[in-house]
Every structure is written in C-alpha cells, then in structure tokens.
Amino acid sequence: MSTEEESKMQDELDALNAKITKHGSEVRQLKKDGAAADAIDEAIKALQALKISAADLQGKLQANVPQFNRKSFDDLVVRKMFVVPSFEIHGGVKGLFDLGPPACGLKVSG
After folding, report:
1. pTM of the entire predicted model
2. Residues forming beta bridges with residue 98, ordered by sequence position
3. Angle value at C-alpha 78, between 73 and 81, nearest 5 degrees
4. Which candidate, 19, 42, 20, 48, places its Cα nearest to that of 30?
5. At what angle are helices 37-63 and 3-33 packed, to 10 degrees?
6. In terms of Cα–Cα distance, which of 52, 61, 1, 64 is closest to 23?
7. How many whole angstroms separate alpha carbon 105 and alpha carbon 52?
C-alpha cells in the first residue's frame, strides 16, 4: 500500500472517529433528556455501526504494519555479538547475558 493510500485511509479513520465522538455525545444527550427508548436504540445502533466500520478500517491499516519478530531479533543480536549468552559453553545458568564488543563500544561512547 502506498503512503498516499495510507494517508487517505488514516484521514477516513480520523473522520469516522470524529463522527463516533459526536454521535456518542448525541446518545448521551438523548439518555439524559429521557427520550423515547426507540430513538435511543436507533442512535445506539447507528453508533455501533460507526464503531464497526472504524474497527475494520483500523484493521486494514494495522495489516500493513510489519510485525516484530522477536526470535529473529534475538538471533541477530547474538550473531552480531551485541550480547553473548553467559556460561553457554559450560552448560550453566540460562538467561544471563554478557555484553559483546559492539555493545561495550556503545556503552562507553553513549
């Protein structure tokens, strides 16, 4: 999906959220004023329809965002020696890490 299409979808989502806010205020006002139950039910159904379409649009936007792969990140960090598993060669404690040469350089310079 292009940036222009994403921007357009985000604009639509923002407009839908504004409508949801406005319609929610109207529903609260109807309830506060003691309007007829049928009018309140119709307003609630319209509000729910707006929320569903906003959720669908949000889902489409979220589908294009790449997911973070923790396993591949961990493999990369170990492979590039930013961290080195402690006691790995001795078969000792699991889950402890030492900083590798690149990470020590970052720590010193930062």
Report:
1. 0.57
2. 84
3. 125
4. 42
5. 160
6. 52
7. 50
pLDDT tens per residue across span 72-94:
998 898 888 888 877 766 666 67
* pLDDT < 50 regions, the chain: none
- For residue 8, the number of C-alpha atoms closer than 13 Å in the C-beta half-sphere is 5
User: 82-95 burial by CB neighbour count: b if 16+ within 10 A, else e?
Assistant: bbeeeeeeeeeeee
Q: Measured between alpha carbons, how far is 80 from 75 in angstroms, rounded to an integer?
A: 9
Measured at the CA of 19, the angle between CA 16 and CA 25, to 5 degrees, comes to 145
Segment (H or E) for 4: helix 3-33
